[in-house]
Design goal:
Blueprint lengths: L1 H18 L16 E4 L7 E2 L5 E9 L9 E8 L5 E2 L3 E2 L4 H7 L10 E9 L7 E9 L5 E3 L3 E5 L6 E5 L2 H8 L2 H15 L4 H11 L12 H4 L3 E5 L4 H8 L3 E5 L10 H14 L2 E5 L20 H4 L4 H11 L9 E4 L5 E3 L9 E2 L5 E3 L7 H17 L1 H15 L5 H5 L2 H6 L3 E2 L4 E5 L2 E5 L3 H12 L6 E6 L5 E5 L5 E4 L8 H15 L9 E4 L2 H17 L4 E4 L1 H4 L7 E5 L8 H8 L2 H8 L5 E5 L7 E5 L4 H14 L2 H14 L1
Parallel strand pairs: 2-10, 11-12, 11-13, 13-14, 14-24, 25-26, 25-27, 27-29
Antiparallel strand pairs: 1-3, 3-7, 4-5, 4-8, 6-7, 8-9, 8-10, 15-18, 16-17, 16-22, 19-20, 20-21, 22-23, 23-24, 28-29
Helix pairs in contact: 3-5, 15-21, 15-22, 17-21
Length: 648
């Protein structure tokens, strides 16, 4: 009887097993984890065409699930800073985006749930800023957010402007910093999902860069321009693919945001071959974090592309003085003065009240009087804003591991040293605290420095400045138009962006500068020894050249560029004109062989460039001509053309 009861019970249990539904595979979790949420297709270039819907695909992974109990997935978007609206979510079929998302799992097993979803954001008008984010709550009430992504609705018919601005992505992560950090940690420990790209964005934010992040309002450009926003490593490919008419390097001060030599060379090649414009803003020239952007004398760098090579000289002088803790450039300065627009280039006067900070150190390019004005204002600012500079010092130390004295830099210590610089025939001499030093450079760099030191304050051209010279816009022309904006204009409002638009339009309106005629004043002896060779070299670089004698020179004294061959005692009347150019001390230096290469401006006409090449005899003059020719190349010709055009 007992055997029959046992058999009956077994039969009943068997029947129950057969009729119950099969259970889902069990997920065994020993340490509960927050969900991770990964967007698979942020808009390329942070740009979308007008009135075009955009569909976002994303992945969610969680240990216990997000679709039962209190678990849920939500997506939100807003346009132009309006109210957040919840988007309608759909499951999604397999496609290239979901396949790429899935391929980033690297664990051999997956003891968790994975969900793929999509939602669509409606189209908007050009100039709109669209933001979206995803919120995931799991059954254990863990909450995770995606980055708060931003894209801009652009004008595809407008001029193409390529913007290198990693801060757009960084700010998306900063707004969800704690949640994204938790997801990265959970991915390493449990999900085994490759979030190396997330880690790269978070790294500088973890080390202090986040406190200086401000939003850049590219929507003010998007209405009229076809903009595309990329990271520095995307630059070479974007140049080829997007074919921009203007490139903007936007406040690239964080080390991870720096351009390497390959990227800078690609940019320079593109600018020269297409005549596209270059606009560089604010901390892109911060040498404490990205020293390669200023670079060494003679190297291709952002500073050299801006034709601001005196900054490279400042670095060399600083290193020679063992002042490595004093950077050339300092950020986070705002003395409160409005920006005055000059009646030159794209501007027609007026002033703009600024709500953005400036970078200082570019004052290396100013003559002594203007530098003195800037120094008085900035010393006062540094004394009153010690905390501000300590914050910068802390952030930079966190990013680089090096300590810098930004208060000293803001007080323009290095630019003041450079006011005492003189360019000799063989190097650059300077004095500091009673010590006199001379640095030797390659001849090409030396001749560009001789020219730029002579015209400092006038080239690059000051298109705009504050009344205290704490901030400025400096521009130059050549194979392409370039402008350095010491302000972070992109962090401002419509007034600041109107200035930026004017610069963009000016950069696009490129016209090749006409090379000035070079008048060579020489007697027959100096002309035949080396003068003809010099004239041939200048003509090969595109300059029209006219040789004149002293008897003929009076009718050519107004030429934009004059080259005089010979010293104060040169035959046939040439020496008399040399004595009008050089001081008595300089004349004696020529006679004794101590010096023989000089540049002056405005001798016989306003803005005129006069170059004197003189030795203590005819053979010495020939040697000076030879040395000068070694420094005259395409870059020098471009600079001389720009100088003549800007100050004539």
């Amino acid at each position: 009887m007992g055997t029959n009861k046992t058999a009956a019970l077994f039969t009943t249990l068997l029947l129950l097993v057969l009729v119950l539904p099969v259970a889902s595979p069990t997920v065994i979790v020993t340490a509960p984890q927050p969900p991770i949420v990964i967007v698979g297709n942020p808009p390329e270039g942070s740009a979308v065409a007008p009135y075009t819907e955009y569909t976002v695909y994303f992945l969610v992974a969680d240990d216990y699930g997000v679709t039962t109990g209190s678990g849920k997935i939500e997506a939100y978007y807003r346009i132009n800073g309006g109210e957040w609206k919840e988007a309608y979510l759909k499951t999604t079929a397999e496609n290239a985006i979901t396949a790429a998302l899935r391929a980033r799992f690297y664990g051999e097993t997956q003891n968790f749930y994975v969900f793929y979803r999509r939602f669509t954001i409606p189209g908007a008008a050009p100039g709109s800023k669209v933001e979206f984010k995803i919120k995931v709550t799991d059954v254990e009430n863990h909450v995770s957010f995606s980055p708060v992504y931003t894209y801009y609705v652009v004008n595809p018919e407008g001029p193409r402007v390529l913007i290198v601005d990693p801060s757009v992505e960084a700010l998306a992560f900063e707004r969800s910093f704690d949640w994204i950090t938790a997801q990265v940690n959970a991915s390493r420990a449990f999900y085994h999902y490759n979030l190396s790209d997330f880690e790269a964005v978070l790294r500088p934010l973890n080390r202090g860069a986040g406190q200086f992040l401000v939003e850049h309002h590219w929507e003010f450009l998007a209405k009229d321009y076809n903009i595309s926003i990329v990271s520095p490593d995307e630059l070479p490919e974007a140049l080829e693919k997007f074919q921009p008419q203007v490139v903007v390097l936007s406040n690239l001060w964080v080390p991870e945001w720096g351009l390497d030599s390959r990227e800078m060379n690609a940019l320079e090649d593109y600018l020269r071959s297409t005549h596209a414009g270059l606009i560089v803003t604010a901390g892109t020239l911060l040498d404490s974090t990205n020293p390669q952007h200023i670079g060494s004398p003679g190297n291709v760098s952002v500073a050299s592309m801006l034709r601001m090579e005196p900054l490279q000289l400042a670095v060399a002088v600083r290193d020679a003085l063992n002042m490595s803790d004093v950077p050339v450039m300092t950020m986070n300065v705002n003395t409160g003065y409005p920006m005055m627009l000059m009646k030159q280039g794209p501007f027609d006067g007026g002033q703009v009240s600024l709500n953005v900070s400036t970078v200082v150190g570019w004052q290396c390019l100013l003559p002594e009087t203007q530098l003195g004005i800037a120094k008085r204002s900035l010393v006062k600012f540094a004394n009153e804003n010690g905390l501000r500079f300590r914050q910068v010092e802390g952030a930079v130390e966190g990013l680089t591991g090096q300590k810098f004295n930004f208060s000293a830099a803001a007080s323009l210590l290095l630019p003041e040293v450079l006011t005492k610089v003189s360019v000799s025939d063989s190097g650059v001499a300077f004095e500091h605290n009673g010590t006199v030093m001379e640095l030797s450079f390659e001849r090409k760099f030396l001749e560009r420095m001789r020219l730029l030191r002579t015209v400092r304050g006038r080239y690059p051209v000051l298109l705009a400045r504050t009344s205290d010279y704490s901030g400025a816009i400096l521009a130059s022309d050549g194979d392409y138009r370039a402008a350095y904006v010491s302000f972070e204009l992109e962090a401002g409002g419509k007034d600041e962006f109107n200035v930026l638009k004017e610069l963009i339009n000016w950069s696009i309106s490129y016209a090749e500068p006409e090379k000035p005629e070079v008048v060579v004043l020489a007697n027959d002896i100096d002309w035949n020894i080396k003068g003809k060779l010099l004239a041939s070299q200048l003509e090969a670089l595109g300059f029209p050249v006219k040789r004149v004698t002293a008897d003929e020179f009076n009718s050519h004294k107004g030429a934009e560029v004059v080259v005089i061959l010979g010293g104060p005692d040169a035959y046939d009347g040439v020496g008399a004109y040399v004595r009008q150019v050089l001081s008595t001390e300089e004349q004696n230096a020529v006679r004794t062989g101590k010096a023989g290469m000089f540049i002056r401006t405005g001798v016989w006409s306003s803005g005129q460039v006069v170059i004197v090449l003189a030795g203590d005899d005819r053979w010495g003059t020939g040697d000076k001509i030879t040395a000068y020719m070694e420094g005259v190349d395409f870059d020098y010709a471009e600079m001389l053309t720009g100088v003549a055009a800007s100050i004539s």
